[in-house]
Amino acid sequence: MINERIQTQFRQSAELKMQAAEQLAQPISQAVELMFLALSNGNKILACGNGGSAADCQHFAAELVGRFERERLPLPALALTTDTSILTAVGNDYSFRDVFSKQVQAFGQSGDVLLALSTSGNSANVVAAIEAALERDMRIVALTGKGGGVIAELLSETDVHICVPHDRTARIQEVHALTIHCLCDGIDVALFGEEGDE
Ligand SMILES: O=C(CO)[C@@H](O)[C@H](O)[C@H](O)[C@H](O)COP(=O)(O)O
Ligand SMILES: [Zn+2]
């Protein structure tokens, strides 16, 4: 019984990935281009999201600051999900809605990229972070699902929206994790070319 459930989940995840590959290859490659350009200009990437998406932010930042699959110089990426003093002070003194936007206001500069993750596209603190980033003339790469929610409404054609075509949070997150690895791989390829791959 449980084995069947597990196999169904693997199958659904794999099927969604195959389906999303076609739809998302284009926006993911646009996101690589946008991020590579920002990094080449000396700008940085800030990342925010809640729960599993907070973990994704940290995963992404670790692969840029440390490394992905190739040896290279550290690249500037910062997860806005990790400083518990900032998160609790801002959450306590202002509101949980402000925990990321205050950090965007503190660290974000024109030309930086905000990687914003929300499976619903509706988390208020991620929406507020996007609004703060747009005010600072930053570019947005949004990873969403469920049609993109409020976030879809905020983005313009200078931003990149990677919206997973599914309604279930877990399945969407699984595609977000793969997308993050595609972003890291794309940035490495932009730096070094495709030689020695696959
Ligand atoms: O990982 C999971 C569920 O798989 C949860 O921790 C999930 O990330 C949290 O419920 C988040 O608060 C959901 O927020 P969002 O993706 O809608 O922005
Ligand atoms: Zn999860």
UniProtKB/TrEMBL annotation:
It catalyses: 2 D-sedoheptulose 7-phosphate = D-glycero-alpha-D-manno-heptose 7-phosphate + D-glycero-beta-D-manno-heptose 7-phosphate. InterPro entries: GmhA/DiaA, Phosphoheptose_Isoase, SIS_dom, SIS_dom_sf, SIS_GmhA/DiaA_subfam. Pathway: Carbohydrate biosynthesis; D-glycero-D-manno-heptose 7-phosphate biosynthesis; D-glycero-alpha-D-manno-heptose 7-phosphate and D-glycero-beta-D-manno-heptose 7-phosphate from sedoheptulose 7-phosphate: step 1/1. One of its GO terms (cellular component) is cytoplasm. The keyword ATP-binding does not apply. The keyword Protease does not apply. It is found in: Cytoplasm. Catalyzes the isomerization of sedoheptulose 7-phosphate in D-glycero-D-manno-heptose 7-phosphate. This is Phosphoheptose isomerase. It comes from Noviherbaspirillum pedocola. The gene is gmhA.
